[in-house]
Amino acid sequence: MKCNDCISRGCPALEKNDLENIPDFNSDGYAKLPVYDWLNDISEGELNDEILEVRFKNTRKGYYINNNKLRLKKDDIIAVEASPGHDIGIVSLTGDLIYYQLHKANIDIANADFKKIYRKAKPTDIEKWISAIEMEHEVMLETRRITEELKLEMKIGDVEFQGDKTKAIFYYIADDRVDFRELIKILAEKFKIRVEMKQIGARQEAGRIGGIGPCGRELCCTTFITNFISVTTNSARYQDVSLNPQKLAGQCSKLKCCLNYELPVYLDALEGFPALETTLETKGGTIYGFKRDIFRRIIWFSTKPDSATDLMPVSVNRVNEYIEMNKKGIIIEEVDVNKEAPEVQIITYENVVGQDSLTRFEDKPKNQTHKKHHKYRGKRR
Known about the structure:
The protein is α+β, with helices and mostly antiparallel strands. Among the domains are: 3-121, no CATH class; 273-349, no CATH class. Helix content is 28%, strand content 19%. The chain has eleven helices and twelve strands. It has helices spanning 3-9, 97-104, 123-150, 181-191, 202-209, 220-223, 233-238, 245-248, 263-269, 316-327, 368-380, and strands at residues 51-55, 61-65, 77-81, 86-93, 115-120, 155-161, 167-173, 194-199, 279-282, 285-293, 298-302, 312-315. The strands form three sheets. It has a five-stranded mixed beta barrel with strand order 1-2-5-3-4. A four-stranded antiparallel β-sheet has the order 9-10-11-12, covered by helices on one side. A three-stranded mixed β-sheet has the order 6-7-8, sandwiched between helices. β9 and β10 form a beta hairpin. α3 (123-150) crosses α4. The longest helix has 28 residues, at 123-150. It is elongated, with a radius of gyration of 32 Å.
């Protein structure tokens, strides 16, 4: 079993020769979309283990009912009901915190049809489960070759086998509708399994694969995001972020989800701000909005529309007063400059390519060591 397969399911490597003595482990560092159990210090007698959260490969999770009243704890490997047969998963959450998660996922406990937990996984169950996991990568590559032969406009991103090897879920990405009926027939006949095709988006694919973001932390879609909200360039504009596609795009080639995190704070702070393109008529001429500091509530004005010339910081309240004066036809005699505003550093572009040699640290003067040696010899004399 490969390490990537272990991490995708949130468990360390399970050796085939020691299936009867599977140790307990702490899987928080392995599992995707982990949940911190802040009720774990409550005694077992007070917990309600009727419904349990079970995780499978990558970000797939499910909620199952414990009809048999099994004494299960977090990280137990269990066999659960599937259609058809059974699946193998790992208990990821127990106790009363389950009901908070169900409420968060908009699942009605009274009307929901929860599947059953059969038993703790036996050594034979785990052995078959591991052999199914080992097949997934090769099956994914073979499926990609078949889709190319059939000329289907789709990308197979991941394959997940059911624990009993009777069924597999094929996750794919496609821009348009795809007729994959012929593909299902080929896969079912070739691998002797029941095939389920599930379409996912680019953000869901990034969450399943995982990775490290430019912030140096694990991707948000891998760690906690379950509902993806659309992100637009307006989120960057409101926060005065440079509209650079290379910096704004995440590993899924979409706009970063984190652009929405601080957006409500900026929208609240922008109340009362005039448009940045605002112009003011003064006695010395027209001045143009150039830059703004949202949280200091300052707008810098320039005497030229396209360059930072003679920048003047003005508070938002004063700017709104000047706008009303211009609407009444009153020309501003002197702009009230905010003296507490920090200075704006204008960064200019300079082409330095070719000014320094790439081997400047490798080149050494030929006679440098000889001269020093000769100088010291003269001193000793």
